[in-house]
């Protein structure tokens, strides 16, 4: 999702010679293959948007895969980029790196100040390692690596299969299916009170290009979000309204719901000139059109 959005943004700005590889073409967990790829192509700029991702259920079910695959991908790509003289490296972080009970809104300096949210701890640890590896290579080797830290993302290219989906895409799937089947009730994990900062994926891509095109001096780690959040309760009702589901929405308080609140402070990158373009309602409308055009007929 993010990688495709970055490619669209690059093309829209007139960049050419854009190099991408699918999973079938290059296994990013295979160090020898990654190093050979970099030796052959020697890219000037690298955006690392690849990762194993998923919702709460997927993180709980496969913690070993989440930490192993993400560490392997990051280690291989960061080191290969440095060794093959990459001029600018952009690493995509995640708001889940912050402690479960971090002060709100969360600032960059809050990383590693408390315990993580247990439901996605392994993914968060891998992402923290990526951030710190970029910092270490910058410090020791003067490698120009910058971390852009987006909030929960949604939009074109998202997964709607429930085993892979994040909260927004999962809710579109479930409400659309419930409407078509005439279901009278939908049950959602948690209390509905958890709050999430949600950003349309094209804004994350623009933040990555902003990092590529600017020199921030010694600064190398930036939150890039919307400075606003929404409860899962309100999000569910927004999406239900969009798809036309009119049944009951209930919440299973025996199920986990992740961090109680994840709102980032993006003032540091805002002060440098970047801000998100789409508000939540605009993003959800774009997401729904994408869903109808690409996935709705599969349900």
Can I get a quick summary?
It contains ten helices and eleven strands. The protein has helices at 2-12, 31-41, 56-61, 63-83, 121-141, 167-181, 201-213, 232-243, 267-272, 280-294; strands at residues 45-48, 88-92, 145-149, 152-154, 185-189, 195-196, 198-200, 221-223, 230-231, 248-252, 261-262.
Describe this structure in words.
The protein has helices at residues 2-12, 31-41, 56-61, 63-83, 121-141, 167-181, 201-213, 232-243, 267-272, 280-294; strands spanning 45-48, 88-92, 145-149, 152-154, 185-189, 195-196, 198-200, 221-223, 230-231, 248-252, 261-262. The two termini are 20 Å apart. The radius of gyration is 19 Å and the shape is globular. It is α/β, with parallel strands linked by helices and 299 residues long. Helices cover 44% and strands 13% of the residues. The relative contact order is 0.15. Strand 2, helix 5 (121-141) and strand 3 (145-149) form a beta-alpha-beta unit.
